[in-house]
Amino acid sequence: MPKKAEPYLELRKDQKILAKKLVFRIFFALGVFFILYLWVFGIFSNINNFWFSLFGRKSNVLKVDTVSPLPPYIYRIPNYTNKDSVGISGTAEPSSKIQLFLNKEKVEETIADKDGQFNFGEVNLKEKTNTFYGITLDQNGNSSVESRDRIIMVDKDKPKIELEKPEAGKSYLSKVRSMEVVGKTEPLSTITINGSYKAPIDKEGNFSYSLYPTNGSNKLLIEVTDKAGNTSKKELFYSFNEE
Q1: 81 lies in the same domain as 148
Q2: Can you tell me the distance from the alpha carbon of 197 to that of 213, in angstroms, rounded to the nearest whole number?
Q3: Is the bond leading into 78 cis (omega within 30 degrees of zero)?
Q4: How far apart are the first and last CA of the chain?
Q5: C-beta separation of 159 from 87 below 8 A
Q6: Is the confidence at residue 58, as pLDDT, over 60?
Q7: Fewer Cβ within 10 Å of end Cβ, the chain: N or C?
């Protein structure tokens, strides 16, 4: 009669079958989980960002800067000039590009340094009214709004001097040793009389000043400098005698 298989041999055979089934089921489950993982998180979210945010870690996703920079600040320039150019400088976002506009036309551009300082040097002016403003462009191409306007007027005309008193060549007699100088010129000008006395001037350009003349011939020199720096002179002689 044939011998029957040993019981422990039958047991080992069953264990191998069970082990194979277990390994198959593990790999099958992992495959299903992997497919679901790709489908769920690959479609509805960025996988890396999901896990990084889940565990409180920062993502390495590149952030795009879309915030507009502040407009440049152009330092104050004179309101009036008789020159053909003016220096333009200011401050802005460090390493940004600054575009300068004159009467709405772009005339210059430069780069701010690491401290945010920029300088266009001498910029040519146009006749009469010149309106400057700037725009900042950051390294990501974002543009600022226009800066505050800086306005400068070009005036090369010398101021006029209208003198009412004293009159040239006229003799004056007075009980008080005093001579009043009265006249009119361009408003906002500076008036110097005889090189050292500054006469006050009102908003209409009227001025007056009292001098203490000597007996006999007197020289009167009036020098007017307007707000743009143009200068005019008027010289005359008159006689004065104290009673």
Answers
A1: yes
A2: 13
A3: no
A4: 174
A5: no
A6: no
A7: N
